Amino acid sequence: MELSVYSIQGKETGKKVTLSDDVFAIEPNEHVMWLDVKQYLANQRQGTHKSKERWEVARSTRKLIRQKGTGGARHGSYKANIFKGGARVFGPKPRDYSFKLNKKVKSLARKSALASKAKDGVVTVVENFSFDAPKTKQYISVLAAFAAADTKTLLVLPAADNNVFLSARNLPKANVLPADQLTTYALLNADRLIIAEGAVEKIEALLN
């Protein structure tokens, strides 16, 4: 697949970049993409939720009513879950939600996500650029040049660039990632994928 390279002003530079068919033209595998997104979201969970069990609730343990002869159920403590302020049965406990995925599965998931975006025609390649200082207005002008100012976008850079990252940080629909931190979740969460020219080679090297 061959795409034109654009300047950050949205104009064609006359250069072309060839995207590897092994990455951008495979048949997307929806199941592995689902697995990778599921793992990503599971890893974000803190797992610190906790409710009190009977032994942790601070309430009286006196016998409420006599054992027999009342015509009702037997009760031995206000800590029981049926009483207001009592314990919770089978409540949540702190746990680790993360799980393992094989490297080849994760690699295939990212390839599938990239191929899916290429198939939808929402991939744009721009020449490498940087900012002298963090300027949100300057980053908005870059997005506006590609008619993506109000669209969920993902910009992939060859390496981490703090000025570009800080310029996009305040924009709720903009995301910036270096090529080596690209995730399936970030790819699928974006409606437009903008890749810096130097990042194309790095992505292909990482996934192949």
UniProtKB/TrEMBL annotation:
Alphabetically ordered keywords of this record: Ribonucleoprotein, Ribosomal protein, RNA-binding, rRNA-binding
Single GO MF descriptor: rRNA binding
Secretion signal, residue range per the UniProt entry: none
UniProt keyword Ribosomal protein, yes or no: yes
InterPro entries in UniProt: Ribosomal_uL4, Ribosomal_uL4-like, Ribosomal_uL4_dom_sf
One GO CC annotation: ribonucleoprotein complex
Protein's UniProt keywords contain Chaperone: no
Pfam families: Ribosomal_L4 (PF00573)
GO biological process: translation
Quaternary structure (record): Part of the 50S ribosomal subunit.
Stated family: Belongs to the universal ribosomal protein uL4 family.
Job of this protein: Forms part of the polypeptide exit tunnel.
NCBIfam families the record matches: rplD_bact
Name under which the protein is recorded: Large ribosomal subunit protein uL4
Organism (species): Siphonobacter aquaeclarae
Classification lineage: Bacteria, Pseudomonadati, Bacteroidota, Cytophagia, Cytophagales
